[in-house]
Here is the input.
Amino acid sequence: MADAWFEDEIAEALAPLLPGLAVEVVPEIDSTSTELMRRVRAGRFAPVLLVAERQTAGRGRLGRTWHSAQDARAPASLTFSLGLPLAPRDWSGLSLAVGVSVAESLDASDTAGVRLKWPNDLWVEDRKLGGILIETALLQPDAAERYLVIGIGLNVGAREAAGLSTEPAWIRQWRPLATAPELLREVVLPLVRNVQLFAAQGFAAFAERFAARDTLRGREVTLSDGTEGHCEGVGWGGELLVRTASGMKTVSSSEVSVRPRRTQP
Here is the structure.
């Protein structure tokens, strides 16, 4: 019988896709992604799924922190990182493809309205449900293959908004009995399949699926560099398209962050 986090079941399901995968669950860690990057620097490149019941120094994009929600009864967050060697033809749009995979796993029929906020957040009604952090490391100089670390944090149970830049959403708002281990089991197998699809076909395989859940498309937005404009979705390489007073601006996820402009009541 599988244990509380279904480690054996998950490892068995993923074995044909990622031979040699290790599935590890720890009660507490600073950051699952930080730990996998430490292992890479130590020369450990085997595929691994590392899950933490609690993170004390979770990391987000552009140096932001990501804190685990706390619940004395059960993990109120799902925080994990998936590490694997990968050699896609083009890395552009990977965080968007990962977001598509996770959103579809959590809300396949789109009843909860799980949306994707470029480039790496999951939102429900303009509230943040979770985030994605993509990191890579060279396996050897000039090699096409890199070691990819995908960090994912999702709010499972209720959490306070204090100290957060965006109001939180959580999965138990529409799935009251959801647990972090069950959600991990639902999310991980499609995630690996979609990452391998991305490696073979790039973001083009996900562009329409992303557009169906794009929360910024058609809205007025403000970039962190002060630019304002009308969001026209994303390009075939996953770049954000914003029509500004001076013309169309193509935005790379490494450059800026973006927020929808709020309408005044």
Summary: The chain has a mean pLDDT of 90. The longest helix spans residues 180-201. The longest strand covers residues 127-138.
